[in-house]
Amino acid sequence: MSQLLRVEGISKEFPGVKALDGVNFELDRGEVLALVGENGAGKSTLMKILSGIYTPDAGQIFVEGDEVDVTDPKVAQRLGISIIHQEMNLMPHLTVAQNIYIGREPRTGPWVREGELNRRTKALLGDLGIHLRPTQGVGELTVASQQMVEIAKALSFEHTKILIMDEPTSAISIQETQVLFRLIRSLRDRGVGIVYISHRMEELRQIANRVTVLRDGQYVGTRSMNDVRDDEIIAMMVGREVSAAYASRPEVSGDDGEVVLAVRGLTTKSLLQDVSFELRRGEILGFAGLMGAGRTETARAIIGADPMTAGTVVVNGREIKISGPSVAVRHGIGYLPEDRKRHGLMLEQDVAFNVAMASLKSNRAPLGFLRDGRARRISENFIKSLRIKTPSSRTTVKTLSGGNQQKVVIAKWLARDCDVLIFDEPTRGIDVGAKEEIYRLLNSLAESGKAVIMISSELPEVLRLSHRIVVMSQGRVTGTLSADEADQESIMKLATQNIEEVAA
Hints:
It is a single chain. By secondary structure, the chain is of the alpha/beta class. 34% of the residues lie in helices and 25% in strands. It has 18 helices and 22 strands. The longest helix has 16 residues, at 174-189. The protein starts with a strand and ends with a helix.
């Protein structure tokens, strides 16, 4: 394979932070190069330099042997460099076709030729195996479908030679991921070089030829995926061995354990039908299923965020009516949402305020003001016990890494001392080292007697942590598996059952 891209000595500094320090790496034609590192390692900064969003302070970039100066995104596009960002950049009021070809629409004078635009988009989507209509409004699409539009947009540039993918599967289903992987292999076979950023080792094993590791803004090394183990990659990323990667789940009291939460016949108007399960003290109960199966909807119905049309919720032996999330909290149920930034945190507030947020009543002074000293003492205890990496409790939450933001959400509910904790995609978008911290934390919560529900799209994660696994499909529970009888095949078989099979 001939060399397509070479980066030498790239450095970038922001006020008080050296994001990149003399980074080198190479990408060959027709190769998928995995780029990994903990949050803050410099991956996204490097990719923004390659795509013309940032200008490096030092270093050189070579494309097909020629030194280039990538001064802005349009220059990157002319050089054949396209990027799919982790944070989507679509216009919800426009159609799929308009988003894909924005600024490049076929025109006659000042007028857009809508028919030609839609025809071109239909051909592109068909070639990529993406089942969307060109005229659909992007604002009406699911997050997964919007991600597919981003991918189509990046690949719509005719001369794309280098494609950068930053966590492209973070919001798409297993089936859509396989469609994406087929597409990546097809592009690779055409000679396109792909830089693939992901925290999911099982994905990298499927598609990457080599892996390059960054740590603290510096280049650590590049290895062939065939010649390196996962624990070796993790050690390169974090600078130490992560022995917890193979830690076993804590023991639980078996079928005779105290039932903390019992859900019976939970039904909602939009999706859920007759969902029933039990959660025991000291147990991690995993929820698995394809996107749209109803896992998040079940959690939202339990906490009263979505109305139930039928069913009962029993907490510690007592049936309760949960009319909203505040009622759920009063009964000891804490919910850590899938989108922590939108629904779990107040990003402009500091760590102490966010930790105290679910316990404001007990942290208020007589006139309603927050007891600042008390809130800071509580938050500092959790900063220490959860190993939250933050300069202080006064640090604004938006400046923390994804893994540390997740720990702040967890601290919020631990400060409230909830008996039941529902974690929805607890490790989405966080790096391998931070994942291990979250895994240890979930195990320690179960060991301390908390009852934990964990919803995750990553089957290895569900299998590793769960004592039992509830599998859902199309709004129904299709089966419950013990840790001993569960494997990826048995879960996927249940996850792909249709409603008629379950009813029969």
